Amino acid sequence: MSDMLALTMGDPAGIGPEITVGAWRALHRQGPGFVVIGDPDILTRAGGPVRVVPDIAAARTAFADAIPVLPLSLAAPVTPGHPDSANADAITGSIARAVRMAQAGEVAGVVTNPISKVVLRRAGFPHPGHTEYLGELCAAPGREVMMLACPYLRVVPVTVHVALRRAIAELDMPGIIRATRTTHAALRRDFGIAAPRIAVAGLNPHAGEGGTMGTEERDIIIPAIEALRAEGMDITGPWPPDTMFTPTARARYDVAMCMYHDQGLIPLKTLDMAQGVNVTLGLPVIRTSPDHGTAFDIAGHGTADPSSLVAAMRMAAEMAVNRNRS
Ligand SMILES: NC(=O)C1=CN([C@@H]2O[C@H](COP(=O)(O)OP(=O)(O)OC[C@H]3O[C@@H](n4cnc5c(N)ncnc54)[C@H](O)[C@@H]3O)[C@@H](O)[C@H]2O)C=CC1
Ligand SMILES: NCC(=O)COP(=O)(O)O
């Protein structure tokens, strides 16, 4: 099994280049090692010692001394903080190449730098984000599940990048069951949790208060929980969302299945944005990323914290070891 990871360039006008340099500084002695698929000049400008390499073997050799880069050309010059949709093909091309390398076994996993969804959308990119694009690249559309994890909490949003009104309308029993089965299997295979304890959030205040504050719990969430329990899962809920993230409540579960994006991501990022990692479950390739975005407001200032990218690298390497073992 390869011990190297592929790191995508992300949006070159965001903080990706500087956190890449910061992550290399944190990891170049002990690893995990990584190779960047991106523009070497942008990384040099961000302060990194950079070495252009022809392949993964050369990248492994170079990693202790410099950031190894498999070069990729940009269509437009880069000004930090000012993204340009002209670079969309290079940004998505970096992701596609990283996935091909993982599929070929050249790298143990893919770590992605942040992209801007709106910048890619303007260039015609049809996906809401990496997660769905990865499903397509792995020929497994619809199998991908987003999870965010930090040392204190794991959350899976059952509905993801849709307007809140649509998330509520689209919430259904098959969606909850699919996301929970994928999460259960991934916690066993990639995270070494033999019998995952799963907590399911309600959608409405007080988890519907017996149907007086909403009926989704009664009609959708409870039937899904009962079906999953019948499969043998250790699963509880629906829990009132306002109290299920307290320290006492969190001690009772390994993952919280959340009904919409912000229900899970707000507690996670509030608890520990610096160590938060975004993981894609359910795919044949391992993929992690920092939990934050492109941070255009501080790009090029030299103040971006690389901790989340470092945590993403470490988590991808640990997942690869667990997956290999299982
Ligand atoms: N995995 C990915 O590719 C992700 C991409 N995004 C995209 O990023 C873009 C910007 O999203 P926002 O909501 O503004 O979130 P953001 O995470 O980029 O920024 C939110 C705030 O946190 C700060 N921040 C973020 N990362 C930081 C770091 N490493 N060090 C220091 N400060 C940091 C920023 O300066 C900003 O004030 C959007 O287009 C969004 O779609 C957002 C999340 C994940
Ligand atoms: N809020 C999480 C996020 O935006 C990451 O999305 P993705 O690009 O990993 O699909």
Automatic annotation (TrEMBL):
<dbReference type="GO" id="GO:0000287">
    <property type="term" value="F:magnesium ion binding"/>
</dbReference>
<keyword id="KW-0520">NAD</keyword>
<keyword id="KW-0479">Metal-binding</keyword>
<feature type="binding site">
    <location>
        <position position="287"/>
    </location>
    <ligand>
        <name>substrate</name>
    </ligand>
</feature>
<dbReference type="Pfam" id="PF04166">
    <property type="entry name" value="PdxA"/>
</dbReference>
<comment type="function">
    <text>Catalyzes the NAD(P)-dependent oxidation of 4-(phosphooxy)-L-threonine (HTP) into 2-amino-3-oxo-4-(phosphooxy)butyric acid which spontaneously decarboxylates to form 3-amino-2-oxopropyl phosphate (AHAP).</text>
</comment>
<keyword id="KW-0521">NADP</keyword>
<keyword id="KW-0963">Cytoplasm</keyword>
<keyword id="KW-0664">Pyridoxine biosynthesis</keyword>
<dbReference type="GO" id="GO:0005737">
    <property type="term" value="C:cytoplasm"/>
</dbReference>
<dbReference type="GO" id="GO:0050570">
    <property type="term" value="F:4-hydroxythreonine-4-phosphate dehydrogenase activity"/>
</dbReference>
<feature type="binding site">
    <location>
        <position position="261"/>
    </location>
    <ligand>
        <name>a divalent metal cation</name>
    </ligand>
</feature>
<keyword id="KW-0862">Zinc</keyword>
<protein>
    <recommendedName>
        <fullName>4-hydroxythreonine-4-phosphate dehydrogenase</fullName>
        <ecNumber>1.1.1.262</ecNumber>
    </recommendedName>
</protein>
<dbReference type="GO" id="GO:0008615">
    <property type="term" value="P:pyridoxine biosynthetic process"/>
</dbReference>
<dbReference type="GO" id="GO:0008270">
    <property type="term" value="F:zinc ion binding"/>
</dbReference>
<keyword id="KW-0460">Magnesium</keyword>
<comment type="subunit">
    <text>Homodimer.</text>
</comment>
<comment type="pathway">
    <text>Cofactor biosynthesis; pyridoxine 5'-phosphate biosynthesis; pyridoxine 5'-phosphate from D-erythrose 4-phosphate: step 4/5.</text>
</comment>
<dbReference type="GO" id="GO:0051287">
    <property type="term" value="F:NAD binding"/>
</dbReference>
<dbReference type="InterPro" id="IPR005255">
    <property type="entry name" value="PdxA_fam"/>
</dbReference>
<feature type="binding site">
    <location>
        <position position="269"/>
    </location>
    <ligand>
        <name>substrate</name>
    </ligand>
</feature>
<comment type="similarity">
    <text>Belongs to the PdxA family.</text>
</comment>
<dbReference type="InterPro" id="IPR037510">
    <property type="entry name" value="PdxA"/>
</dbReference>
<dbReference type="GO" id="GO:0042823">
    <property type="term" value="P:pyridoxal phosphate biosynthetic process"/>
</dbReference>
<feature type="binding site">
    <location>
        <position position="131"/>
    </location>
    <ligand>
        <name>substrate</name>
    </ligand>
</feature>
<feature type="binding site">
    <location>
        <position position="206"/>
    </location>
    <ligand>
        <name>a divalent metal cation</name>
    </ligand>
</feature>
<dbReference type="GO" id="GO:0050897">
    <property type="term" value="F:cobalt ion binding"/>
</dbReference>
<keyword id="KW-0560">Oxidoreductase</keyword>
<feature type="binding site">
    <location>
        <position position="161"/>
    </location>
    <ligand>
        <name>a divalent metal cation</name>
    </ligand>
</feature>
<feature type="binding site">
    <location>
        <position position="130"/>
    </location>
    <ligand>
        <name>substrate</name>
    </ligand>
</feature>
<feature type="binding site">
    <location>
        <position position="278"/>
    </location>
    <ligand>
        <name>substrate</name>
    </ligand>
</feature>
<keyword id="KW-0170">Cobalt</keyword>
